[in-house]
């Protein structure tokens, strides 16, 4: 019988050999400590883990573990498991650039907003996979314009963009609002999530949803008179 990546113990992703697993310790917005790195390195040596890969979601994937090793590896790592498996229909991760914390070009606190979004929305059940990119300036290093939702910092506040995708049918996100402070950006994201949950078909990524419903209809449904539209 063909197994799916969902088969297997919690927190483990079955690999294509149908025998070994990958695990992904949770590292919100890609922030890691010396303690995390030491524990990951120690686990790679102790269990002879063949592959350790940094993913596009700014996480460490430890690949090639045997099922009987999983519990012990998690215990040694002492880190939280990623909240969701790669195939689940929900928000998967928030990608964030360094922003004002360390980058000379940063205009907004992308790490702070990214952490808040990750805490609030990761794992939330949605019609499809859902990814967010939060960039601290218009260079958009967190790939905000090819994510389901993109936030981009400017000196007058956040630009809010929807419908980006970097997959087989790439799409650049539509910018629908600008000049948002953090609370206004969170409020708009909440409104969009509600609209998307109510109106999208199962497995309809935001990019396809925007193409089907039309960007103008979405703007009319979720923007208010106070929201500064992007010309
Ligand atoms: S998007 Fe801007 S703030 Fe963020 S890392 Fe890139 S240059 Fe720096």
Give the secondary structure arrangement, pairings included.
Blueprint: E1 12-14, E2 21-23, H1 34-47, E3 51-54, E4 60-65, H2 70-77, E5 91-96, H3 110-121, E6 130-135, E7 149-154, E8 157-162, E9 174-180, H4 182-199, H5 206-213, H6 215-222
Parallel strand pairs: 5-6, 6-7
Antiparallel strand pairs: 1-2, 2-4, 3-4, 7-8, 8-9
The structure holds iron/sulfur cluster.
The site of iron/sulfur cluster has 13 residues, from loops.
Q: What structural keywords apply?
A:
231 residues; alpha+beta; Ribosomal Protein S8, Chain: A, domain 1; Sulfite Reductase Hemoprotein, domain 1; 2 domains; five-stranded mixed β-sheet; four-stranded antiparallel β-sheet; 6 helices; binds iron/sulfur cluster
Protein architecture, described:
The protein folds into two domains: 12-77, 2-Layer Sandwich (Ribosomal Protein S8, Chain: A, domain 1); 91-222, Sulfite Reductase Hemoprotein, domain 1 (2-Layer Sandwich). It is built from six helices and nine strands, in the order E-E-H-E-E-H-E-H-E-E-E-E-H-H-H. A hairpin with a 6-residue loop joins strand 1 and strand 2. The chain has helices at residues 34-47, 70-77, 110-121, 182-199, 206-213, 215-222, and strands spanning 12-14, 21-23, 51-54, 60-65, 91-96, 130-135, 149-154, 157-162, 174-180. The model has no long low-confidence stretch (mean pLDDT 91). The chain has 231 residues and is α+β, with helices and mostly antiparallel strands. It binds iron/sulfur cluster. The site of iron/sulfur cluster (SF4) has 13 residues, from loops.
């Amino acid at each position: 019988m063909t197994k799916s990546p969902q088969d297997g113990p919690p927190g483990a992703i079955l690999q294509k050999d149908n025998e070994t697993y990958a695990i992904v310790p949770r590292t919100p917005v890609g922030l890691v400590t010396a303690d995390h790195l030491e524990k990951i390195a120690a686990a790679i040596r102790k269990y002879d883990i063949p592959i350790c890969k940094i993913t596009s979601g700014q996480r460490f994937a430890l690949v090639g573990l045997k099922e009987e090793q999983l519990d012990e590896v998690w215990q040694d790592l002492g880190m939280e498991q990623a909240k969701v498996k790669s195939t689940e229909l929900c928000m998967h991760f928030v990608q964030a650039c360094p922003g004002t914390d360390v980058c000379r070009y940063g205009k907004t606190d992308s790490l702070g907003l990214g952490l808040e979004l990750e805490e609030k929305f990761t794992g939330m059940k949605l019609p499809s996979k859902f990814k967010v990119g939060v960039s601290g300036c218009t260079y958009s290093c967190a790939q905000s314009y090819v994510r389901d939702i993109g936030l981009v910092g400017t000196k007058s506040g956040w630009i809010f963009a929807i419908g980006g995708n970097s997959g087989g049918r790439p799409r650049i996100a539509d910018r629908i609002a600008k000049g948002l402070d953090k609370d206004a950006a969170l409020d708009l994201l909440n409104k969009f999530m509600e609209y998307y949950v109510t109106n999208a078909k199962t497995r309809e990524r935001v990019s396809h949803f925007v193409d089907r419903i039309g960007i103008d209809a979405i703007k009319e449904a979720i923007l208010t008179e106070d929201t500064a539209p992007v010309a």
